[in-house]
Amino acid sequence: MPYDAKPGEVSLFENEKMGRESAPDHQGYVVAHRDIKAGEKLSIALWAGKPNSARSFSGKIADLPRAGDRTAPTDLFGNPLSGAEKTSR
User: Is the pLDDT of residue 86 over 50?
Assistant: First the structure.
């Protein structure tokens, strides 16, 4: 049974170049979780390798936080930062 991608999911796969060096290194798809306007930025997070496929990535897309929204800081994978990991800029 094929995998049915859910809204907000991203899949990225290593491209088989077959001697074409100008071909992209990776390609894949995004399943939009809502209508997206041209020029609009979305947040994206990717995780390397699905089981039995070290050359693929999977991930999620999400809306960027709006100005004024207060959210806890997170690392690149969306995990909450503890007090020891926070850095001042």
Answer: no
Rounded Cα distance, 59 and 49, in Å: 10
For 76, residues 6+ apart whose C-beta sits below 8 A from its C-beta are 45
Q: State both tokens at 78.
A: 């969306």
List the end-to-end C-alpha distance of the chain, in Å, as a whole number.
Answer: 49
Tell me: the pLDDT tens digits for 17-63? Answer: 778 888 888 888 888 888 988 888 888 888 776 666 657 788 888 88
At which residue do the structure tokens 């930025």 appear? 41
Residue 46: its H or E element: strand 42-50
* pTM of the full structure: 0.54
Q: Report which DSSP code applies to 85.
A: G
Distance of CA 65 to the CA centre of its chain: 16
3-state SS, residue 83: helix
- Side chain identity at 12, as an amino acid letter? L
